[in-house]
């Protein structure tokens, strides 16, 4: 449904939208919310396994960053180094 990667210093992503819309009665917007929530949980879990970072704190920081990014400009094609790592 989603593929993302960093190449030549920029974030690239590819989406497959319309799957639920075309094949089920599921509201695709809600389905994407579930996907994004599951992805955030998996990232937090993987960070804990790889680095020992607390999963619940990581998830809080991911959610804060997600919410804050809506107040900023679209980062499509932005340099990966421009992401605030603090």
From TrEMBL:
InterPro entries: DUF5076 (IPR031796). This is DUF5076 domain-containing protein. It comes from Rhodopirellula maiorica SM1.
């Amino acid at each position: 449904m989603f593929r993302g990667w960093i190449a030549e210093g920029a974030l690239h992503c590819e989406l497959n939208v319309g799957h639920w819309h075309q094949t089920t009665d599921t509201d695709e917007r809600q389905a994407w919310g579930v996907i994004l929530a599951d992805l955030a949980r998996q990232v937090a879990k993987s960070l804990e396994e790889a680095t020992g970072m607390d999963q619940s704190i990581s998830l809080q920081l991911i959610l804060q960053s997600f919410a804050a990014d809506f107040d900023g400009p679209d980062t499509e094609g932005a340099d990966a180094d421009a992401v605030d790592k603090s």
